[in-house]
């Protein structure tokens, strides 16, 4: 008996190594990632270890050890920690109320739709929205002062400050937390709660001893992702605070424009430090996300 291979002969080399057509769909994405992610990142990494004449040097990395740059990094880290922590707590509470709290089912779809939009709402529009609401002459600020006699400025609140920027970041941090943690909450099996109830556990004991240990990798991983999301945000911070708050992205933006440091390779080193910090946060998120998915299968 003959086979199709015997009748047609061996396949020509070009046919054996032809790229399947279904791979063509990801070529635009691969090109986009290469041009706008990998190549700029490699340019930053190489430039951080180059002198103006192109030779290798560590002077740029040592140049980061200055009070102004270290202070900018430290403020950025504090804002990222605060916004990520508050975003996780509030976002988890909202998602748990919708998924496990017995709220009407019709609330879920509008909430997730809004979260998908709000998680990408940033930059100048977001800064303008908060200035118009909580700024010195914002809607809520004026209402509290004229109608209730509460002056936010006298109470120490200033939108163009650490807590002002943190609250502004929460507008996209909370929706992002809702989008990420909702599938994890859906993965909690109803049988686990029923088994805990049969054994006499209260609702608090179920969450403390069953649900939270299972969700902990997802929660910690999402916190790391929110940290990286906040640490790299620049457009909102610049539009809202300008130069009144010195954080790493604003310092880097000033370096790109050439207004402050005047040393492009030191700017590469500053960007390299930001990439290093956000890469660690993203790596933690990916690792913990994989552990959580194994638990929830």
Automatic annotation (TrEMBL):
GO cellular component, one term: plasma membrane
Domain called ABC transmembrane type-1: residue spans: 73-287
Entry annotated with the keyword Cytoplasm: no
Keyword Ion transport assigned: no
Entry's localization field: Cell membrane
Principal location: membrane
Transmembrane portions of the chain: 20-39, 79-103, 123-144, 156-185, 205-226, 233-254, 266-288
Membrane topology classification: Multi-pass membrane protein
Keywords recorded for this protein, A-Z: Cell membrane, Membrane, Transmembrane, Transmembrane helix, Transport
A GO biological-process term: transmembrane transport
Domain of life the protein comes from: Bacteria
InterPro entries (UniProt xref): MetI-like, MetI-like_sf
Annotated family: Belongs to the binding-protein-dependent transport system permease family. CysTW subfamily.
Protein name per its UniProtKB record: Putative spermidine/putrescine transport system permease protein
The species this protein was found in: Hoeflea marina
Origin organism lineage: Bacteria, Pseudomonadati, Pseudomonadota, Alphaproteobacteria, Hyphomicrobiales
């Amino acid at each position: 008996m003959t086979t199709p291979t015997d009748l047609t002969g061996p396949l020509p080399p070009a046919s054996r190594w032809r790229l399947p057509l279904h791979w063509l769909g990801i070529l635009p994405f691969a090109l986009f990632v290469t041009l706008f992610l990998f190549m700029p990142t490699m340019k930053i990494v190489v430039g951080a270890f180059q002198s103006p004449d192109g030779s290798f040097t560590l002077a740029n990395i040592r140049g980061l050890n200055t009070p102004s740059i270290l202070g900018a990094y430290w403020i950025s880290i504090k804002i990222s920690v605060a916004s990520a922590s508050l975003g996780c707590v509030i976002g988890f509470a909202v998602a748990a109320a919708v998924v496990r709290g017995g709220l009407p089912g019709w609330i879920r779809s509008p909430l997730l739709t809004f979260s998908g939009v709000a998680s990408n709402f940033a930059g100048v529009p977001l800064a303008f929205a908060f200035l118009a609401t909580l700024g010195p002459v914002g809607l809520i600020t004026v209402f509290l002062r004229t109608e209730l006699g509460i002056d936010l400025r006298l109470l120490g609140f200033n939108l163009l400050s650490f807590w002002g920027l943190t609250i502004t970041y929460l507008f996209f941090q909370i929706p992002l937390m809702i989008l990420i943690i909702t599938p994890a909450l859906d993965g909690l099996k109803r049988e686990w709660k029923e088994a805990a109830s049969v054994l006499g556990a209260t609702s608090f004991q179920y969450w403390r001893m069953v649900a939270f240990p299972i969700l902990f990798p997802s929660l910690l991983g999402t916190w790391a992702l929110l940290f990286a999301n906040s640490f790299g945000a620049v457009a909102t911070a610049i539009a809202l605070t300008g130069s009144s708050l010195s954080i790493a992205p604003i310092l880097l933006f000033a370096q790109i424009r050439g207004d402050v440091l005047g040393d492009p390779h030191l700017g590469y080193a500053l960007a390299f430090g930001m990439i290093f910090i956000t890469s660690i946060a993203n790596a933690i998120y990916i690792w913990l996300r994989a552990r959580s998915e194994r638990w929830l299968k």
